[in-house]
User: Which sequence fits this backbone?
């Protein structure tokens, strides 16, 4: 009973915080004098912060009305909860990153400032260059409430040294032979783990908690968390049962994935493969192990791609909302969009070429950028998102907890997930 109340509390807190942020414009801070802007982000990566600060410093040179722009990293695992707590507590940032899974709540709540007019009127902005497909998640009632600064497909980083030492074919060799499938990828991961004593395959940021990152796996079976209209649970579909049965076997029988409670950092050499996005390429050290980046393996339904998306929005209650929106236009103009493309694939159609992305991604080959990033953006589906995501996510996570043990009844667990979330979906 207490757990149920706690879960409902998460959803209520999110809805309440966003509703508070939507009520009126401008906060209680002193509006006099130059503005001090704060933008919450999820990354504390030094390379990311260095680039953000360089862009901010350039902006401030020609904008004396802005005295400071601070980028405030929040922990990834609790990012949205921390952000909404700040909003509810009257400490809302001026700008914020928003994940795709909470986009419906933020966009529909009225907490964010419409950006269309500011972006379209910014000199040299070229608003029409932004791919319409990347805007859909961030629009409501014909207005844009966040700029999709990162539309980043998932790929597989591979430690080719570990695979070769284990006598395994590399994904590049399997791709050339038309054999880069999940069956072969998991078999390769298991064999390499046995040989190396390290982890085989890590689905990045999943860690048996971030269940939505498993969409990078189950989409290959044609499975979905819920129906297109968001009203029907998909966790107990035959496709999902097949996918999760394969994942369970890979974890507890094949030992292709590290089990619950085991941490393995691919970029430190702790695993043979990881499913993640190109923003992590900055963690690869020069002179380290040999590596490659390839598309997700084909599933029973064939080739596919999954995209993670993040938007940047301006909080309506910011005491400096006008300056914040103006800085957002500068941060995402064509010049700075090209710079950010080093880590965050841009929504600008003119910049989605291997040549353009290669200029700011020197570690990645043109073929890698084309096959993983550009083709992935063109054909990929976005990770699961839904209104009321906070409570849904908690219920799904709790419902999946029994799955992460060796003797789990996969079908029964997935039926239980649907029992938990169907009433929420049907609202």
Assistant:
């Amino acid at each position: 009973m207490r757990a149920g109340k706690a879960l409902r509390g998460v959803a209520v807190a999110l809805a309440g915080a966003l509703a508070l942020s939507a009520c009126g414009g401008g906060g209680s801070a002193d509006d006099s004098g130059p503005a001090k802007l704060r933008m919450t982000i999820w990354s504390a990566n030094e390379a990311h912060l260095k680039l953000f600060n360089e862009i901010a410093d350039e902006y401030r040179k020609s904008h004396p009305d802005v005295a400071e722009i601070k980028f405030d990293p929040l922990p990834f695992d609790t990012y949205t909860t921390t952000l909404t707590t700040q909003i509810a507590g009257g400490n809302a940032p001026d700008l914020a990153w928003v994940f795709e899974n909470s986009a419906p709540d933020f966009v529909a709540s009225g907490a964010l400032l419409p950006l269309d007019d500011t972006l379209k009127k910014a000199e040299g902005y070229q608003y029409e260059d932004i791919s319409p497909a990347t805007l859909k998640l961030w629009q409501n009632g014909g207005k844009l409430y966040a700029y999709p600064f990162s539309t980043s497909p998932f790929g597989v980083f591979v430690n080719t040294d570990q695979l070769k030492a284990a006598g395994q074919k590399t994904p590049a060799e399997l791709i050339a032979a038309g054999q880069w499938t999940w069956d072969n990828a998991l078999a390769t991961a298991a064999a390499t783990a046995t040989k190396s004593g390290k982890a085989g395959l890590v689905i990045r940021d999943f860690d048996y908690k971030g269940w939505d990152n498993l969409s990078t796996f189950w989409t290959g079976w044609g499975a979905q968390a819920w129906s297109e209209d968001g009203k029907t649970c998909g966790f107990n579909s035959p496709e999902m049962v097949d996918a999760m049965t394969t994942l369970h076997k890979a974890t507890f029988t094949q030992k292709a994935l590290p089990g619950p409670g085991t941490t393995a950092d691919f970029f430190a050499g702790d695993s043979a493969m990881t499913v993640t996005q190109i923003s992590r390429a900055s963690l690869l050290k020069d002179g380290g192990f040999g590596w490659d980046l390839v598309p997700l393996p084909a599933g029973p339904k064939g080739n596919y791609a999954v995209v993670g998306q993040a938007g940047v929005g301006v909080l309506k209650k910011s005491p400096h909302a006008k300056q914040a929106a103006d800085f957002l236009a500068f941060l995402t103009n064509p010049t700075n969009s090209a710079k950010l493309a080093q880590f965050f694939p841009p929504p600008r159609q003119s910049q989605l070429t291997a040549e353009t992305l290669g200029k700011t991604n020197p570690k990645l080959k043109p073929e890698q950028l084309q096959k993983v990033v550009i083709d992935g953006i063109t054909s990929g589906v976005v990770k699961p998102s839904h209104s009321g995501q906070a409570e849904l996510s908690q219920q799904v996570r709790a419902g999946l907890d029994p799955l992460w043990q060796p003797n789990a009844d996969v079908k029964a667990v997935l039926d239980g997930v649907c029992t938990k979330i169907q009433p929420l979906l049907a609202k």
Observations:
- The first strand starts at residue 35 and ends at 41.
